[in-house]
Amino acid sequence: MSSSSLSASPLLWRLGEAVRFGWREFIATNPPSVLGGSILPRMLLQALFFTLLGGVVAGARHQEYAYVGGLMLALAMTNILYVSQVPVADKESGTFWRLRSGRLHPTALFVARALPYPLAGFAVAVVVAAVVAPLAGLGELALRLVPMSGVYLLISFTATAAGLAASAFSVGRRVETLASNLTGYAVMLCSGAFLPPGRVPVIDVVGAVLPGRHGLAAVHAFLGGEPWAARVAAEAAVGVGWLGVAALVVAVQIRRARRHGHDDFV
Known about the structure:
The chain is an all-alpha fold. The chain contains 13 helices and no strands. The longest helix has 32 residues, at 229-260.
């Protein structure tokens, strides 16, 4: 066995252990009673409200538009709001110093531990789609969206990346609630979930760098029989960009921690 293989094996083992720990951490923080009794009902009622509101305000066509966007927000808001639990757990436990002194970079550990969130967010969206569609009379549209399931799953990952980047600020500041909520509301406003692109230029500019905007555009293009692959690639690029932001924020936190000798900069 080559030296590179030997050096890679401990790295993969550490990453695997981080992923395994992330699942256990996720279940401990979000047990079935929380997922089924709090998170899912909130997202379901939110999607149903906006779907029905779209029909009341602008007719059946916009109701369909709002349903497509509501599914995206169900998973995006789940991920952005709740993935903050990953870095906040280290802040509250005073264990970030152990992460920054370990073999794996803290960003890699955060990402590994955050993997359950995009899967949970996607599962929430699937349940929301199945419940809201018949209530709103959009069963046919729900079936047409099945081929776009992979795009919704991609948005779930990009939203998690954005949520992780926002919540990374909480390692050294008491801003986890503010950062996560601001990011979530920005996505709600600028993603094109309810306000179609082209109405407010500033919102279009901001939305271009937020998760969900390009993915939703791909879904609408698919439904309209237009090319959509480039929009999916743009959504993936947004997710990579937010991972880069998360890595940068964590790197700054590490540098400040080494300079100050502690992890609390409040």
